[in-house]
């Protein structure tokens, strides 16, 4: 095997095969590469049977890529190596042995919907008022408990005298009992139960310890307590555990990732060897410098210094567009131009964003410009369940001729109309040669339909009243009404999972689409809108083409790399998210967002383009975001492009009029989706900031003064500009060079 392909510390890591090993290194330094080479080395040089090797990672995509790299290197025999995700590892083990825990090996795995249904039943049975104690709260409490390996008994003990906790314990106990009765596991159970299986059955544990003599874990910084315990148990006998990770890329705290697993690895495995990799092979120096200067703003991290041989490379393009629409247009044109000039193929390009909902505008632009694309780890915008549901409502209201659309929503929300009754309606429609919806209107006449007719009637009445509304009102009001009357968003809110949250964001985005259609069309009509959407909604046959641009969230981009990357929507309030800015523990939340920014920047090999929009429609309302603080943390000499921020957004007549127009189009503002807070501070807050801003008024230094910064040392203040929500101060530091920073974050002291 050729170890020439590795640098010295990488080679050292490959050759250190016995005993615990931690590889702690920054992005693009070859961590994953070490794992694949190590696997080949074990087999080819040490003659280890591939059967004894296991490589674990987080996402299916990452596991797939690792599998490919290993197959290429190892060839024959590589199929018996376990290269999988945590969850599929556990499913495989449980399918074999879960009968030891009293479950059948043909257990079912409950998804979020199933969990919710079950939780509803339990709350009902325990007579819990779900207006006060939400199902989602119980589900998330249980999920966190399972991540921490706390079972219902332990949970009850810890609840002690706390009334609320005792109630949660009751629910947890009941939920778990019910799962077992149904021979079902939820997602968190997969890991929890495998750990339990190993703890209670030494023989089973022993057989897997014998099997997996060499264990490797990629993206170790994102393991939670249960996953850690699983690995610890498996590795306990032979101790040949190699974990690789980067504490700066830990981005799953919200799913229980425990960063101390990596920070305390040496404590858990006292004789562990630690190897650091410092050479980055992926990116240019400019991209690395940008990533390093952003992440340097996080406190309490393990210092790392990444360098590269790849040369300075291009500057990072920063482009601030007037609207999110123009942002998508800019990216589409830029990609088309680069491909036309032969600089890149589509496949070289990736567009990364903070929330799934942002894909919509890009998809539309790409379809219009004939740019092939694929959404990774997600579904095309108009193919998403919630969007299809709402479109089906609009189609039914528009003309009711699309039987599929009507059938899609007849029981959304649940109206208790059974399959047998629906079959009777279908038969009747066929016999009378009418549409399904027409048949519903004649429900009373349908033979044998019985009591179902009474359940069908309210649906028909609702559609009819919406038809009347559609004739007189705007489409945005109509959509808003549908959302309210069906309780669609309210139900998602009650669910409270990440998935539900992302569906709500998609619905908000759909609302923005409606409003922008209304604004951009002389005579907007419901049919016109549906036609326009159909042009982009029905195209999803791009998969046979392997040359496509990928669109994905920053979370799914972890571990991947592309020559030409776009980081879109870099605005305060979107990224970092509004929730992180306003959270009680905002400092920590923003650090997590900053790690995500670091992940994003370091995906780029050659060219990075950062874009932001001055205004963006959110839930049909135009809102304004200042350029993301993360962009401002990048030294300006690395950027091509200016950050322009008007002193006061109110002074911009064009923007204000659009804002008012959107308000008018959407009079029932703010859209009330329960307790959800708006994603952005609306424009009026810019003003209240100016007047209530004590930081700015009380700045203890001015241009020309010498100041001290905790990290960057001493320097001279070059400029102070009121921008966004804060004062932006430019300081020429003696050692660290010129930096732009927000006064409230920088905590500069006059010296
Ligand atoms: P991330 O933190 O993003 O997961 P990583 O540390 O896992 O990154 P890899 O994906 O393994 O990094 O490597 C980044 C790129 O650098 C890959 O294209 C890889 O092939 C290349 N690379 C790594 N080490 C070397 C080396 N010694 N010589 C040449 N190329 C290398
Ligand atoms: Mg990697």
From TrEMBL:
It catalyses: ATP + H2O = ADP + phosphate + H(+); Couples ATP hydrolysis with the unwinding of duplex DNA by translocating in the 3'-5' direction. Residues 668-695 are annotated as: Disordered. The keyword Nucleotide-binding applies. Its EC number is 5.6.2.4. Residues 4-284 form the UvrD-like helicase ATP-binding domain. PANTHER family: ATP-DEPENDENT DNA HELICASE SRS2, UVRD / RECB / PCRA DNA HELICASE FAMILY MEMBER. This is ATP-dependent DNA helicase. The gene is pcrA.
